[in-house]
Amino acid sequence: MNAATMKITRIIRIEDTRQYEEGPDDRWYPIPGSGVENQCARCGRMHEVHALVELEDNTSAVVGTGCARGDDLIKCAQFASAANAAKRLRGLRAKLAKAEANAAIYSEALRVVDALTPPAAVWTKAPNKCSAGDHHVIAVGEGKAYSYQPGELSPSDRREREDCARNGWRAARMTEALPAGFKGAACGYSFKYEAERLKQDIAKVEKRLAALMAPAVAV
Ligand SMILES: [Zn+2]
């Protein structure tokens, strides 16, 4: 008997070796040809997504994930599910690497901006457009806030308005401190949170994959 004809009794390991890149739609796609090619014991072709399997004589072989046959002891559907999980895992890991890199870039920019001293808040008045009277304009550098409250503001309201203007100034400094076109800069999006969420997704897929590595299910 040889590996090309022997039945597959168990999937030992399944792996997608390709690199993934982010598409314009924010989804991640495998880059064809970026993986490690392994020759398939079944069809003789090279596969970038492959499985190490146990054969009926207890030896192991590398096969493509689409190369299980109907007469294999492991169900073809189980093989397909495992291949999908392996691909998803690879994509999620690429996404996690990006989120972690973004988190590092973002916190470095935050450190730089936090070390800056914002300019003092300047209060002026400007005439209302649609009604008589004036409104307050609070400026911290290019950061602006407004108040239409008549008369003088209470100290806590003043502070709140100045904080608002200061946030505008900080947002402008963050944009300068981050690389051009950095996504999520404007809203202070949490890359750390995204990384945590991705780690949870990865753990779930790993668990599913481990369950699919279970001993042969007779067809
Ligand atoms: Zn094959």
Give a structural overview.
It contains 3 helices and 10 strands, in the order E-E-E-E-E-E-E-H-E-E-E-H-H. It has a 3-stranded antiparallel beta sheet. A 3-stranded antiparallel beta sheet has the order 8-9-10. It starts with 7 loop residues before the first strand and ends in a 7-residue tail after the last helix. The model has no long low-confidence stretch (mean pLDDT 90). It binds zinc ion. Zinc ion binds next to strand 7.
Task: Produce the secondary structure layout.
Blueprint: E1 8-16, E2 20-22, E3 28-30, E4 38-39, E5 46-47, E6 49-55, E7 60-64, H1 76-114, E8 122-127, E9 134-140, E10 143-147, H2 155-177, H3 191-212
Antiparallel strand pairs: 1-6, 2-3, 4-5, 6-7, 8-9, 9-10
Helix pairs in contact: 1-2, 1-3
This protein binds zinc ion.
The site of zinc ion has 8 residues, from strand 7.
